[in-house]
């Protein structure tokens, strides 16, 4: 039986590439999303991967969503915590709602989605948890106190849970992407990309979602069983953490 992989935010952007790559590698994949039904339905029609709509910032919705996935697809062996948002603003102008939305979606989601799957992984003696953090959680970014805090928190979560879970055959790792060509980055004005971002990327270009997806497939594999608690930096040499 194929192992079951869940990718949160798995219908668009980096998550879409991860879902497709895991399917191509032989996993039974379930992709989750928040509310963009059009994108999710298109993704489902194109890939045949089942989609599940629930808000990763809502614990009860996640518990119900994971239960639905386990009923339809099977017990979760691989969890990719990928869903994330930005709500950028300089801190002295940031509103509480912007802070809370980003922390709830990017950081509290780790509790909400991982907690319902961790005991099954422990009982079965196998699991792979990959968290998509960010370069801006490693180095900080002006205008992103909320996002940088959430993404640095992701890395702390990974290090602690890795230590708790290693004896049960579960690895827990983070990937910290640099700037990847998705809608999140396309929202950045082109002149800002050209003048202020791409010149700092040693390889001279944005990354592609597939370049993150290939690393997830590796971390999910049996070959990566000795890698846990680590943060894999994939940023074209922009920041050497
Ligand atoms: P996109 O905006 O392209 O896609 C985001 C995905 O997450 C969508 O499927 C979206 O669902 C889902 N999502 C958003 N909020 C929620 C929520 N509350 N509950 C459930 N699902 C949700 O993002 P990217 O692909 O660019 O980013 C993916 C991850 O990679 C994020 O964690 C991001 O922080 C991180 N990252 C991205 C970088 C980049 O350069 N793009 C760089 C570094 C890190 P829906 O379609 O319904 O809205």
Automatic annotation (TrEMBL):
<dbReference type="GO" id="GO:0042619">
    <property type="term" value="P:poly-hydroxybutyrate biosynthetic process"/>
</dbReference>
<dbReference type="InterPro" id="IPR057326">
    <property type="entry name" value="KR_dom"/>
</dbReference>
<feature type="domain" description="Ketoreductase">
    <location>
        <begin position="3"/>
        <end position="183"/>
    </location>
</feature>
<dbReference type="InterPro" id="IPR036291">
    <property type="entry name" value="NAD(P)-bd_dom_sf"/>
</dbReference>
<dbReference type="GO" id="GO:0032787">
    <property type="term" value="P:monocarboxylic acid metabolic process"/>
</dbReference>
<dbReference type="InterPro" id="IPR050259">
    <property type="entry name" value="SDR"/>
</dbReference>
<dbReference type="InterPro" id="IPR002347">
    <property type="entry name" value="SDR_fam"/>
</dbReference>
<dbReference type="GO" id="GO:0005737">
    <property type="term" value="C:cytoplasm"/>
</dbReference>
<dbReference type="Pfam" id="PF13561">
    <property type="entry name" value="adh_short_C2"/>
</dbReference>
<dbReference type="InterPro" id="IPR011283">
    <property type="entry name" value="Acetoacetyl-CoA_reductase"/>
</dbReference>
<protein>
    <submittedName>
        <fullName>Beta-ketoacyl-ACP reductase</fullName>
    </submittedName>
</protein>
<keyword id="KW-0560">Oxidoreductase</keyword>
<comment type="similarity">
    <text>Belongs to the short-chain dehydrogenases/reductases (SDR) family.</text>
</comment>
<dbReference type="InterPro" id="IPR020904">
    <property type="entry name" value="Sc_DH/Rdtase_CS"/>
</dbReference>
<dbReference type="GO" id="GO:0018454">
    <property type="term" value="F:acetoacetyl-CoA reductase activity"/>
</dbReference>
């Amino acid at each position: 039986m194929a192992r079951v992989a869940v990718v949160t935010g798995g219908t668009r952007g980096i998550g879409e590439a991860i879902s497709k790559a895991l399917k191509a590698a032989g996993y039974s994949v379930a992709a989750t999303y928040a509310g963009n039904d059009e994108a999710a339905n298109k993704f489902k029609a194109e890939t045949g991967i089942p989609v599940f709509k629930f808000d990763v910032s809502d614990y009860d919705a996640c518990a119900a969503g994971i239960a639905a996935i386990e009923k339809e697809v099977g017990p979760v062996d691989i969890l990719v915590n990928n869903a994330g948002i930005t709500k950028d603003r300089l801190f002295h102008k940031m509103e509480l709602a912007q802070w809370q939305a980003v922390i709830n979606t990017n950081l509290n989601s780790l509790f909400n989605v991982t907690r319902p799957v961790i005991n099954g992984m422990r009982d079965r003696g196998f699991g792979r948890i990959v968290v998509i953090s960010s370069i801006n959680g490693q180095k900080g970014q002006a205008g992103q106190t909320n996002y940088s805090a959430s993404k640095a928190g992701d890395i702390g979560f990974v290090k602690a849970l890795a230590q708790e879970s290693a004896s049960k055959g579960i690895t827990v790792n983070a990937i910290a992407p640099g700037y990847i060509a998705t809608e999140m980055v396309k929202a950045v004005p082109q002149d800002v990309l050209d003048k202020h971002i791409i010149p700092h990327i040693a390889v001279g270009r944005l990354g592609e979602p597939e370049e993150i997806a290939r690393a997830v497939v590796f971390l999910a594999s049996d070959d990566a069983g000795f890698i846990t608690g680590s943060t894999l930096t994939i940023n074209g040499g922009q920041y050497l953490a």
